[in-house]
């Protein structure tokens, strides 16, 4: 009898974990430059309970989300956040941001998607619309910087900025300053695709929000993607468990400080 009860409890536990981390396919209204109906796809994963919960909008790199992003979703949900993966690429019938002649879509497109996702989340009863954070990787990290730059025109900002923003190994085209949300940047020292040396924080000026950057010694792009070990377009992508462990703490603390 005790054995059967233990097995039942174990099965219940696995069902609970599966439900929490399984995710649900969703679709919500996007903003089209051509004034036509445009629906964005995504995957929504929520914690157990009624909420309302804080939420995180997730933006992928230039090749889309990797399987290893599921690790981040598990971490977010275990901390009590709703996680929404925004499918910027597949929503447009793409698998890559690059085409034969260069970028097919830009970071401004993904930044627009982020605000459309924020609007969608704000309308869900179990989400606290005043506590929505933004996190992006690589191309998505570049889009994060675009999204929190108030000088860049974006439709449907929803009247309020993101509570906080986190960018993993973003491409920094301009000095980091004047953002409308606290920003954390996590970069690899050996990343030669989006060099960390291009990310220059400018103190003072119009900036009233914290900007923090941590560069991991000896780490490449995708240092937080478990199992990653390849070369893409001549650039090394490699998982670094030590850098990842610290990044998890950095993200947890930054979210807890501003979005929890």
Average pLDDT: 90
CATH-defined topology: Rossmann fold
- Report strand order across the widest sheet: 1-2-4-3-7-8-9-10
Detail the poorly predicted runs: 1-19
Could you give a short account of the major beta sheet? 8 strands, mixed
Number of domains: 1
How would you characterize the overall build of this protein?
The protein is an alpha/beta fold. It has one domain: Alpha/Beta hydrolase fold, catalytic domain (Rossmann fold, 3-Layer(aba) Sandwich). 28% of the residues lie in helices and 25% in strands. It has 5 helices and 12 strands. It has helices spanning 2-22, 69-78, 107-122, 139-147, 241-258, and strands at residues 24-29, 39-45, 53-59, 82-87, 98-99, 102-103, 127-137, 165-168, 183-188, 211-216, 229-232, 235-238. The strands form 3 sheets. Strands 1-2-4-3-7-8-9-10 form an 8-stranded mixed beta sheet, sandwiched between helices. It has a two-stranded antiparallel ribbon with strand order 5-6. A two-stranded antiparallel sheet has the order 11-12. Helix 3 packs across helix 4 (139-147).
């Amino acid at each position: 009898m005790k054995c059967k009860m233990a097995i039942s409890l174990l099965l219940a536990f696995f069902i609970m974990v599966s439900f929490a981390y399984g995710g649900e396919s969703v679709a919500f209204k996007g903003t089209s430059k051509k004034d036509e109906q445009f629906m964005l796809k995504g995957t929504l994963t929520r914690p157990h309970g009624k909420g309302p919960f804080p939420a995180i909008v997730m933006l992928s790199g230039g090749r889309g989300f990797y399987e290893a992003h599921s690790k981040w979703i598990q971490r977010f949900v275990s901390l009590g956040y709703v996680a929404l993966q925004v499918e910027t690429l597949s929503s447009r019938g793409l698998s890559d941001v690059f085409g034969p002649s260069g970028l097919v879509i830009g970071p401004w497109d993904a930044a627009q998607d982020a605000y459309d996702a924020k609007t969608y989340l704000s309308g869900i009863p179990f989400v606290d619309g005043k506590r929505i954070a933004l996190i992006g990787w690589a191309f998505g990290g570049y889009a994060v910087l675009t999204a929190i730059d108030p000088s860049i025109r974006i439709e449907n900002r929803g009247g309020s900025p993101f509570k906080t923003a986190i960018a993993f190994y973003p491409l920094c085209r301009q000095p980091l300053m004047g953002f409308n949300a606290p920003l954390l940047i996590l970069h690899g020292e050996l990343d030669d695709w989006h060099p960390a040396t291009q990310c220059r924080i400018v103190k003072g000026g119009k900036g009233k929000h914290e900007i923090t950057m941590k560069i991991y010694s000896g780490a490449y792009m995708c240092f937080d993607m478990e199992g990653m070990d390849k070369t893409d377009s001549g650039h090394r992508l490699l998982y670094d468990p030590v850098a990842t462990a610290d990044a998890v703490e950095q993200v947890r603390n930054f979210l807890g400080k501003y979005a929890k």
